[in-house]
Amino acid sequence: MTKHDYVELLAPAGSDESMRAAFRAGADAAYIGGTQFGARAYAENPDDEGLKAAIDYAHLHGRRLYLTVNTLLKDKELEQELDCFLNPLYKHGLDAVLVQDFGVLSFVKERYPLLPIHISTQMTVAGTYGARLAASLGAERLVLPRELSLDEIREIHAASDIELESFIHGALCYCYSGQCLMSSLIGGRSGNRGRCAQTCRMPVNGKLLMNMKDICTLDILPQIVAAGVCSLKIEGRMKGPRYTAGVVSIYRKYLDKLLKKGDGLSVNGRKAGEASFAGGRYGGSGGWTVDPADKELLRELFDRGGFSEGYYRRHNGPEMIAVAGKPDRRIVDEGMLSCLDRYLEGEIEEALAGRLVLRKGRPAALTVELKTFVRGSACRGFSASARGMVVQEAKSRPLDESDIRKQMGKTGGSGYRWESLDIDMEDGVFLPVSALNALRRDAFAGISEEICDAYRRDV
Length: 459
Description:
By secondary structure, the chain is of the alpha/beta class. The protein folds into two domains: 8-343, TIM Barrel, CATH 3.20.20; 350-453, no CATH class. It is 32% helix and 21% strand. Strands 1-2-3-4-5-6-7-9 form an eight-stranded parallel β-barrel, surrounded by five helices. A four-stranded mixed β-sheet has the order 15-14-13-17. Strand 14 and strand 15 form a beta hairpin. The longest helix is centred in the C-terminal third of the chain and has 21 residues, at 433-453. The model is unreliable at 261-278 (pLDDT under 50).
């Protein structure tokens, strides 16, 4: 069982659209690359302003955003370019940075001591001594190599206090994760610089001898969490928003089966404390079932010739290789996937409590509160107030409460909804509809600013 007070579902974000789809589908956090230093150079990575907007979006909905700076850097990049890249994002409230390069780790720790550091799987920290070293150097989390077994993960968890993150779905490298030189040697595109051409997927003597099946761990999700993994990572920054949303939604469903209702901490409305974790109930195989339809949906989203459980319960084996690859003319069941369309548009709406006061001769006042908001594993609240036009005495038709509720209820597109709204008003008052709309917009803007400002940092 994890020592930490949450179990996080972590989604890939190869674009802003994928990030939003992941959060709509239930991801607790997303990892994304920028214009430099990321291990997926060909993803639709946002620019600096896009990253700032993504950070704000995540925080407005109680989620976290991690930045991939997980390539090997050249000396001149470390000395000149890295600081210019990270500085504005650090100040804007970036939640963590993933690193492969020890030089980058040292630089970030010295220059930005409040920025959590996650050791990328590319650093290949695969044992207890490496985990302890990473923690001693200031890393907060270790992204485990895909090649580790459940027993090896348990050993690392027992011997160190660093957070453990592990891949639960997506592509496998034939070589040690991120350490392959084949693409670089054959095509001049280095995986260590984020430009892997996936040469292992190409035919060798007419056969796909190194084409690994994707991993799918629904059947062993309880054992993975019980082994000490606190962040369940989905691979796929090169895939589209529908893939991201679909995989996240399925794993969200089954992770929620591991979280019971109670009085512990809540992550985006879901139980997250050790007291609420049901790993003991499902730690073995008894009682844990997976709907075949959910696996079929995952196959419809992407199929490389079937799934495997990766290395969690076996060392190697031909069952992990998709020799035939995927069919040349694969027919996708669009009807099955149509259920995912709801994650591709629309808005997440946070529930607000509000109080509107209307007194003749005084400015209209609206106070809003977001009571159960989460940053990491610590609950906190936010509030904001707005003052509007002076309330008038009605000359003909005064406002009644139903009119006000109807107007104030027009929250579409704002990212908020009313959980409750108390209206304290005198009889015979009047306020233009436009003034009520402006008051609502100002209050919502105010609480958005309060939330985002809580994450800002100074260098």
